[in-house]
Fold this sequence. Notes:
The structure holds two protein chains of two kinds.
Chain A: H1 35-40, H2 45-52, H3 55-65, H4 77-81, E1 92-97, H5 106-113, H6 115-129, E2 133-138, H7 143-158, E3 174-179, H8 189-196, E4 221-225, H9 226-230, H10 232-238, H11 240-244, E5 254-261, E6 267-272, H12 278-283, E7 297-301, H13 321-326, E8 335-340, H14 345-359, H15 365-382, H16 388-401, H17 431-445, H18 447-451
Parallel strand pairs in A: 1-2, 1-4, 2-3, 5-8
Antiparallel strand pairs in A: 5-6, 7-8
Chain B: H1 12-24, E1 32-37, E2 40-45, H2 50-56, E3 80-84, E4 89-93, E5 104-106, H3 110-125, H4 141-149, E6 167-168, E7 173-175, H5 185-193, E8 199-202, E9 209-212, H6 224-229, E10 235-237, E11 250-255, E12 264-270, E13 273-279, H7 296-300, H8 303-306, E14 315-318, E15 321-324, H9 327-339, E16 344-348, H10 354-367, E17 371-373, H11 392-397, E18 400-404, H12 408-411, H13 413-424, E19 429-434, E20 446-449, H14 456-464, H15 466-473, E21 477-482, H16 490-503, E22 508-512, H17 518-523, H18 535-543, E23 549-553, H19 557-560, H20 564-573, E24 576-581, H21 586-589, E25 593-596, E26 605-608, E27 613-617, H22 630-640, H23 650-660, H24 669-673, E28 678-679, E29 702-707, H25 715-718, E30 732-734, H26 736-742, E31 749-754, E32 757-765, E33 773-777, E34 797-802
Parallel strand pairs in B: 1-5, 16-17, 16-23, 18-19, 18-21, 19-20, 21-22, 23-24, 24-25, 29-33, 30-32
Antiparallel strand pairs in B: 1-2, 3-4, 3-5, 6-7, 7-10, 8-9, 11-12, 12-13, 14-15, 14-25, 26-27, 27-28, 29-34, 30-33, 31-32, 31-34
Helix pairs in contact in B: 3-4, 10-22, 10-23, 14-16, 18-20
Amino acid sequence: MGAHGTYAWAAGYFDDGDRPQIVTSRFKYDDSYTLDRYHESGGYQGLRKALEMQPAEMADEVKKSTLLGRGGAGFPAGVKWGFTPAGVWPRYLVVNGDESEPGTYKDRLLMELDPHQLIEGCLIACYAAGLSQCFLYIRGEMALAHERVAKALDDAYRAGYIGKNILGNSFSVDIVLHWGAGAYVVGEETALIESLEGERGMPRVKPPYFPAAIGLYGQPTIVNNVETLANLPFIAANGSAAYTAIGTETSPGTRMIAVSGHVKRPGVYEIINGTTTFRDLIYGENFGQGIRDGNELKAFVPGGGSAPWFVADQLDIPFEGRQASSAGSMLGSGAVIVMDDTTDIPAAALTLVKFYAHESCGKCVPCREGGTWLYRILERIVAGNGTDADLDTIREVGQSICPGEMPHAASERLGLDAVPFPYKMTTICFVGPSAYVPVHSAMTLFPEEFAVLVTKREVRSMIPVTAAPVGGE
Amino acid sequence: MSDEPDNDLTNEDDLVAADTAVETIPEPDPNAVAITLNGREIVARKGETIIAAADREGEYIPRFCYHPRMSSVGMCRQCMVEVDTGRGPMLQPSCMITVLPEMKVETNTPMAKRAQEGILELLLINHPLDCPVCDKGGECPLQDQTLSHGPGESRFVEEKRHYEKPIALSEHVLLDRERCILCDRCTRFADEVAGDKLIQFIERGNATQVSTFPDEPFSSYFSGNTVQICPVGALTAKPYRFKARPWDLEQVESTCTSCSVGCRISVHSSRDELLRFQGVDTGADSDSVNWGWMCDRGRFNFESIEAGHRLGVPLVRSEAGLVDTSWNSALELARQLIDGASSIGLLGGARGTNEGAFAWAQLADAVGIAHRDAQLGDGLSAELLGVPRATINQAAAANTVILVGPDLKEELPVLYLRLRDAAVHGHTKIIEFSSQSTGITRYAWRSIRHAPGLGPVEIAKTLADPTIAAQIASGDVVLVAGRSNMAVSEATALAAVQAVLSAVPNATVLPALRRGNVVGALQLGLAPVDVDHDALATLRLAAAGHLDLLVLLGADPINDCPDADLARRAIAGARHVISIDTLPSESTQQADLVFPAAAFAEQRGTTTNLEGRVSRLNQKVTVHGTARPDWMIASELASVLGHDLGFTSIDDVTAAIAATVPAYASATPTAIDSADGVLAVNTGGGLPSVEATEAQPSGYDYRLVVSRKLYDRAVSTTMSPSLAKLPIGAGAHLHPADHDRVGEPDGAEVRLVSASGSVVLPLVSDDTVQRGTIWAPFNQAGADITDIVDSSTAVTDVRIERLT
Lengths: 473, 804
C-alpha cells in the first residue's frame, strides 16, 4: 500500500510518500532507456491494461484523472482529446518533443532516460482517443534524445508494441519519428504542425486552425507534450483514482520541475502537484537545497522564460495553476530559474529578451519588429547609453505587443499589488509577449536598477545615432 | 388558402396582390448573418470574414496582408478590431474571424486604435522612409494607412535594418528587402494563385526576408502580379522602375489583347508615354475574367509599343527596298493594286479591334475578296464558335472541364489561373487530353496521355470509362477546345473536338483560340466561307502564283503559320503584298506596300474575348507617327476605291456592328462600358463534319509535337526589352530515355528529318515530353521547326540523324 491512498501501485512505480515517482521512477538505473530495463520495471503493463478496456473506457480514465497538459497551458488532456470531430479520419497524435522554453529540460530527460515510457504513453493515447498515426517530433538540438527514442522505437516495433495488430489485438498504429530543425517557435503546436508538414515553422491562426479540428495535413490532430503522455502508462496501469489520490483536486498527480540558476542543487525534480510550494522546491532538502553561497533570493521565474517573475513574497505559492495566475504569473512549462541577490536584473532581462527576439519566426509584426526593438533599447540601457525616455518607450512598445494591463507579481517592498495573469496580445502565439514579459517584470519589480542606468532627460528628443552606412543602391 | 399554387393570375389586381404578399413575408436568406458593426446592425454573408463584411459596408479597417483573392494568414496584425461574441470584447484580426450571428465588432475603440497604431509604428521602425524617391510613394498602402491610422511620430532611435538593395528575383522583378514589410502577399500569390512556389521566406525574426531558392529565379509567368499587390515599394518591375511618380500618371481602363482571355486592365501613362499596365478586379463576386491578375507577357509587352521600331509612315517598295511615302500616294497605290487584282486574299485581323475587323470585312465585301481568314492555319474552324459557348466563370464553376487543346499556361495564362483555382480551391474536375505534361497536368483529375494525332476512337473510349463517364454525368461540362499541336492537321484537331461533343452533347465550349481578338474578327466577317477559302488555301493559291494581291492585316504568316515553308513561298508567289501593321515583321519586310497601324492604347474601340465578351479598348496615348487605326485605313481605302463604308468615327463603326451583326445587337456603348461588358455569341450552326484520318504507323521513330510557349519570337515579345531574353529558343525536346538512346549530349545539334524536309536543332532532355515523341516549341529563335511540317498531312513523323 502506498502513502497516497489505498491503491496498490503496479510494479515499477515508486511511492515513498513525500516523493511519489510516476514518470521518473526509472531514472535511477544506468540502463533506464533499454527495453529490458523497461520490461523489468513493469513496462508496457499499462498498454496491456488499456487494451483490455474499450477505448472509450480508457479515455474516460484519462478524463477522470484530470491529467493536465505539461507543455505550458495546463489544459486537461482528456478534455482536449474530446475536441476532435466525430467521424473524421484519419486523425493524428503529434508528440510535442520540441522542448525549448528557457530553463526547461524535463522532457529531454524523459526522452533520454525513459523513451519506452513515452512510447507506451503514445500508444495508450492513440488507442484511447482513436488516433490512426503518431508523429513524434523531437527538438533539433536533442541528439541523444533522438538517438535513444529511435532505438527504443526500433526495439518496440520488433517486440510487437508498435505496428500492425499490437500485442495480437486489432489495434494498429505507427509512430513516425521526426527531428526538428531547431526553432523555439516550433514548440507552439500549430507551428510544430507546419514544420512537420515540411513548411517553415510559423504558427497558424486559431481560429480556424485549432489542431483538434484542422491540424496535421488538415486532419483532426491531438498535440500532447512528452511529459503528459509519459503519465499515461501509470494511469492505465493503476487507474485514475490512484492518480488523483496524489496532489490536489485541481492539480492531481505529480509534475516534473526543472530548477536552474543560483540554487545549490539544480536539477529536474518530480514534485507533488498542487501542494508543493516554490519554497519547498528552492529550499527543500530533496530539491534545490537553498540559494548558493548563502546568498539571498532576489527573484525567480516560476514557469519557464516566458513567465512573469516572482520574488520572495511569492515563495509560499504552491504549484497550482489558479493560485499562480492570480499571483500574476503562470506555472508554464515546469521550469524555475532562480536569481540570487548578486544578479544584475536588467542584464538578466536582456538575456531573456535577446532569446525571444532571436527566436521570433517573423510572422507577426509586433513580435518580429517589437521584440528586436525591445532588445535593442534594453541593450543600450544595460550598456549605460539609455535615458528615462527609453523606459517609457519600452512600455509603449510593450503595449503594442500586449495591450492593456500587464500581469505582474505583488511586491511588499514596493507596495505593489499583483495583476493577475494572463495578458492580452496582438500576436498569434506567445513568442511576441514573451519578449516583453521579462523586461516588464524586471522594470516593475526592480525599478531602481533601471533608474541608476539611465540618464534623466527633461525633454524627449532624438538621441544621436551612428549614421547609416553610405552607399546601398 | 389552398396548398395548390395559384397559377391563374390573369388579372392585374391578382398580380399586385401576389407582389404584396411576397413583400410581407420576406424569405429568410440562409446566407445572411446579422452582426453589429460599430454600433450599426448590418447583414453579412455566411462564411465571410469581418474585414470583407466591413469593406462592403464602407467601414475601412487598415490591412496589409489581407487580399480578398487569397487566403487570410493573419500575418501583419494590422486589421485588429474588438470582437465580442458574448464573452466580452477581444482583440482579433478581422481578416481571420468569420462572422457569427450577433457578433459585435468595434473597429475604432481606444483598444483597437491603439493596436492599429502600434502595428503601424512597428512596421515603420525598419522601413526606410525614402518615400520621396520610392516608386510606391503616392500610391502606397503603408504611406496612406500611416496617415489615416498611424501614430503621429516614431520613437525609434536605433539604426534601421540594412540589406543590399535591390536584388533581382527574376528577369524583371526586383526586391528591396529594406522596404519589405513581410506581408506574405507575394509569396502567397506565388504559391496559392500562380502555383509557382519559387519565392519563400528565409531566416527568421527580424532577419526574415523574401528570397528565391539558390540558382532558381522567380521565373513565373505571373511574377508581375506580385509587384502590383505589394503594399509597399519593395517589389518593383524594371519597365516602370523610376519612370514616374504616381501623381503624374494618368490612367484609363481597357482590355488586354495580348491573348483572347481579354483581361480587364488599367493603362497608365505619363507625358504621353505608356508606363505600366495593371490588372483590374471589379469585385469579389462579379469579376468575370481575370480577378485582377495578368500574365507578364500582357503586363510588360507594352514596351514594344513604345519601342523605336514602330512603323510610323507608309512604306513603299522601291529599288532601294522599302522607303517612306505619303498616305495619299500609298492609298493611291493600294487602289491601283486592288483594282488591278482579279484575286485577292485577306489574312489577319485577329490582333486588332472589333471595329478594325468589321471595317475590313465590309471593305472585303465591297471589293469582293473571297479569300479571307483571321487565323493562319494555326487555330480551329470558326464554326467552333457556333457551338453553345461557356463563359470563364461557367468553366470555373463547372463540375467537369474537358481540355482538348493547347497548354493553357503557355497560351491563355489567366484562363489557366482561373481553371487552376477552380480545380484547387473549387470543385471542378479537369480531364485533360494531351500528348505531354502541361501546366494544368498537376491539377487535372485525369490527364490522358496520347500520341500526337489523337483519334476520335481513343477519345470515345476514354470518355466511356465508367469512372470518367460517371464524373461527366455528375453535372455540367465545359469543353475547352483548341489546337494543341501544330504538327497535326486542323482536321485531326477538329475531329478530336467533335468526338468529345458527340460523347458529351450537352457540353458547352470555351474556344481556346489564342490571338487577342480572334473571336471578334471571326464573328465580324473575317472568317473563311469554307476550307477552300481559308488561310492555308489562300497561301497555297499564292504559292502557286494564282493570287494577285495578298493583304496582311496585322498578320505575319511566315512566323505564325504552322507551315512556314508554304507561307514563305506564298509571300514570294503573290504578285503583290500589302501589309497593315504596327511593327515590322518578317512578312512586312517582304511587302510591296506597308500601312502603319495604330497600336494598343493608341486607339479606342472594342474587343471580343474567347467567351464572346465585348469590352472596351481605350486610347491613352497619341498614335505613333502618322499611323492610323485599322478601321480608318479600311474606310479611306474604300473611299478611294469608290465605296462609302459610312464611318466617320470609331463610334460609327461600333454602332454599325450593333445594328447589323445580330450577335452584337446588345453591344451598345453603355453596355460595353459596364463592368462585365456584353456577351456576343453566335448561336446555331455547329461543327462541320470532318473525316478524321487515323494516323498510320510510319517508318519514322518519333511523332512531332509543335506548340507555343508564352514567350516566343512574336514581335511584341522580342521588341519588349524586359521580355526579350525570356524565350527558350528553338530545340528538339526529348524524353530523357529517348535522349539517351540518341547518344548525343544535351545541346548537341541533330538533324530532324520528316517526309517534307529537314531541320537542324539542338537536343534538349525534357521529362515533360512523352516517349516516342519530339516536342519543339513553335516560333522560337533558331531554325524553324515548321519547315518540316506539312499542313496537308494528319500528323508529322520525324527521325533523328546525328550530324557527326
